[in-house]
């Protein structure tokens, strides 16, 4: 039972830490992440992230938005590493100094979010992104704020107070009977997962669906009308994108947590004169029983 010690915290924090959405700008979070089910079936088979493709209307520059979840199947990160090789430049998120590139397997961190994510990965038999993504590849380019600048902007915007305020408001709005029933249903599903023949797989299915159900609320809590977490970090990435386009790069990807992608999509259309051309999907969590059993026996 030790592996499930984080679940009490995760039930509350997991949707907020891993995902968020800004539904006001024409794109919703469900454009960039989804739970897949077979037609006519209720049981989910996978939790997927998007590769949303945009192309310049006045040039031949192509930009892809690649959504990330920070814990996923090992195969997910293996697939991404192969996909990344297609790009002239791969802009990645990491609140770190510009000359810092994570080494392979170096995923240890004492930050609060990393501790929570590592706990979630342990509980759900998933791997941490920093352990498998090849940040040493030549086309990898840091496109984020440094720690000092992020901390300053986070404080200046009052993001911590704002998030707690929004959480309080949301709690008041959802304190009625229907919200209580929904909470009880989720608690029932979590309890049922503990007694399933494959508890880890059952928990992954529960969390995948709960995340999708709570996207708009999580997005409002984190992003609001602008935040250092989303808006300012996106602006830093787009500044790097402009530089790389000026440097002649033609095929570029932005690899960021899916929380950031609705704002990125809006900016590509409005500020970079690009149009959306389609989406490919990558399986982040395989939720099939056969896959789970095969991994457990390896």
Throw out a few tags for this protein.
seven-stranded mixed β-sheet; disordered N terminus; 49% helix; alpha/beta; disordered C terminus; 298 residues; two-stranded antiparallel sheet
Structure description:
It is a single chain. The chain is an alpha/beta fold and 298 residues long. The chain has one domain. The strands form 2 sheets. Strands 1, 2, 3, 5, 7, 8 and 9 form a 7-stranded mixed sheet that branches. Strands 4-6 form a two-stranded antiparallel sheet. α5 crosses α10, α6 packs antiparallel against α9 and α7 runs antiparallel to α8. The longest helix has 19 residues. The two termini are 21 Å apart. The N terminus and C terminus are likely disordered.
Shape: globular
Any idea how many domains? 1
Poorly predicted ranges: 1-25, 109-113, 292-298
How many runs of DSSP E, i.e. beta strands?
9
Using only CA atoms, what is the Rg? 19 Å
Layout of helices and strands, plus pairs?
Blueprint (H helix, E strand, L loop, with lengths): L6 H12 L14 E5 L6 E13 L5 E7 L2 E2 L1 H11 L4 E4 L19 H13 L2 E2 H4 L7 E3 L4 H11 L1 H15 L3 H18 L4 H15 L1 H9 L4 H19 L4 E7 L3 H11 L2 E13 L2 H8 L2
Parallel strand pairs: 3-8, 5-7, 5-8
Antiparallel strand pairs: 1-2, 2-3, 2-9, 4-6
Helix pairs in contact: 1-3, 1-8, 5-10, 6-9, 7-8
């Amino acid at each position: 039972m030790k592996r499930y010690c984080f679940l009490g915290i995760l039930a509350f924090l997991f949707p907020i830490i891993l995902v968020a959405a800004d539904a006001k700008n024409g794109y919703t979070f469900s454009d960039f992440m989804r739970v897949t089910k077979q037609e006519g079936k209720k049981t989910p088979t996978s939790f997927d992230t998007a590769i949303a493709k945009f192309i310049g209307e006045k040039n031949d520059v192509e930009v892809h938005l690649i959504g990330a979840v920070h814990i996923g199947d090992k195969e997910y990160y293996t697939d991404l590493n192969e996909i990344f090789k297609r790009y002239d430049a791969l802009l990645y998120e990491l609140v770190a100094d510009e000359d810092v590139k994570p080494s392979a397997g170096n995923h240890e961190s004492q930050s609060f979010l990393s501790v929570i994510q590592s706990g979630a990965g342990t509980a759900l038999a998933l791997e941490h992104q920093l352990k498998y993504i090849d940040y040493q590849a030549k086309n990898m380019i840091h496109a984020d704020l440094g720690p000092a600048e992020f901390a300053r902007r986070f404080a200046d915007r009052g993001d911590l107070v704002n998030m707690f305020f929004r959480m309080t408001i949301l709690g008041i709005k959802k304190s009625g009977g229907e919200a209580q029933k929904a909470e009880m249903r989720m608690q029932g599903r979590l309890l049922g997962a503990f007694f399933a023949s494959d508890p880890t797989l059952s928990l992954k299915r529960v969390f995948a669906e709960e995340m999708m159900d709570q996207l708009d609320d999580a997005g409002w809590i984190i992003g609001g009308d602008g935040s250092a977490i989303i808006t300012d970090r996106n602006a830093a990435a787009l500044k790097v994108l402009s530089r790389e386009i000026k440097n002649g790069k033609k095929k570029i990807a932005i690899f960021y947590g899916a929380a950031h992608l609705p704002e990125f999509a809006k900016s590509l259309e409005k500020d970079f004169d690009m149009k959306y051309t389609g989406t490919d999907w990558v399986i982040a969590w395989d939720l099939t029983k056969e896959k789970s059993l095969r991994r457990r026996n390896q």
